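Q: My labmate handed me this sequence with no annotations at all. I'd like to see what the chain might look like in three dimensions before we decide whether it's worth expressing. Could you predict it?
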Amino acid sequence: MNMGKEVQLRPKVNVSSYIHFLLNYRNKFKEQQPNSYLGFKEFSRKCSEKWRSISKHEKAKYEALAKLDKARYQEEMMNFVGKRKKRRKRDPQAPRRPPSSFILFCKEHYAQLKRENPNWSVVQVAKATGKMWAAATDVEKQPYEQKAALLRAKYQEELEVYRKQRNARKKSLRMARNQRRGKRVRQELMDQLEKNKMAFTCPACLL
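A: Here is what I predict for the chain of 207 residues:
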């Protein structure tokens, strides 16, 4: 029987009306044209054009979904008790961790989404790219995963060099501490011997 505490997962962040539309539009496109391949840039452009062309009545449906999603998220966050991890102080000499395939994807599509939706905040753009990545196929993700793999390999090489240099610095500091400690111990012994010598010196010899 598992007596440990259950881990409470963080609530899924709500998304905008446009993201609800984007996901629905993508699903319909796949159903209508299952054998067609459309890159993210082309798909984003078509989706943006379609969003601007639909009626206010149709947009209202997605806006209602977004409001329900926001209410759901706020309610779940009220009941969420999460622990914040303390950030470890980073060694400025350590190599930076490489971006993941998802981060590479976000960087590539951020400018386009921001240009098509100038009123969006950074958070809204991040949510949009997250939804687009989740809906992407393995073929569409492959270029980003390949680039991320190359960056990881380079990072591992740099990390190995850094660790060797760090271990060498630690060894040098340890040897310096040991030398200082040994010098201090020798000095203490010499002082003690000098005290003992004075204590056992014959008083008559001092006359």
